[in-house]
Amino acid sequence: MAKTLSPFKSLPAERRLTLVQQALAKHKGARALYAQRIAAKGGGFRAATLVTWPPEKLAKECLRLGALTAQDELELLQLLYVDLEPQYQITFLDTAGVPHENGVMPDDLETPYADPDRVRAGAAAVLAAHGEAGRHYLRTLVVYNLAGWPGLDAAMPAEG
């Protein structure tokens, strides 16, 4: 049986590359962190050299060597769905009746964020409005935060 890819790794390669480049531009310490990880993987470059590389080259090498951790992948998906493309989250939260500002939920919300009926309605709205991209967003929630969204796994149609 084939192993299911993480939501990040299931994105097309070009999309993953763009996300890493966005993280390098947005997060101050990302360049040094990724350079250090690449250097630790071997290949002959020191971290001091790698930080001078253009963002696209550094991002490509980071992905080529698998220098991202599971936490990095989660942060990149948050960057995607909260900062860069919040429309999926906005549709889901609006329909589920969860307070937010442009897709950003208040820090003090407690889980679960909505009851199962509202979660199902939110999932249906995302799938109807956003198709396959919406399915990927919902799959990301199932993998990383199912406790916050009871019944979301059951609301997801089988992939096929």
Order of helices and strands: HHHHHHHH
Q: What helical percentage do the residues reach?
A: 55-70%
Task: Show unreliable segments.
Answer: none
Question: Measured on Cα atoms, how large is the radius of gyration?
Answer: 18 Å
Strand portion: under 5%
Strand count = 0
* Content-based structural category: mainly alpha
Number of domain modules: 2
Roughly what is the average pLDDT, rounded to an integer? Answer: 94
Q: Mind describing the biggest β-sheet?
A: none
Our count of helices gives: 8
Oligomer: single chain
Query: What overall geometry do the principal axes of the alpha carbons give?
Result: elongated
Distance between the termini: 15 Å
How is this structure best summarized?
By secondary structure, the protein is mainly alpha-helical. The protein has helices at 13-26, 30-41, 47-50, 55-65, 70-84, 87-96, 116-145, 152-155.
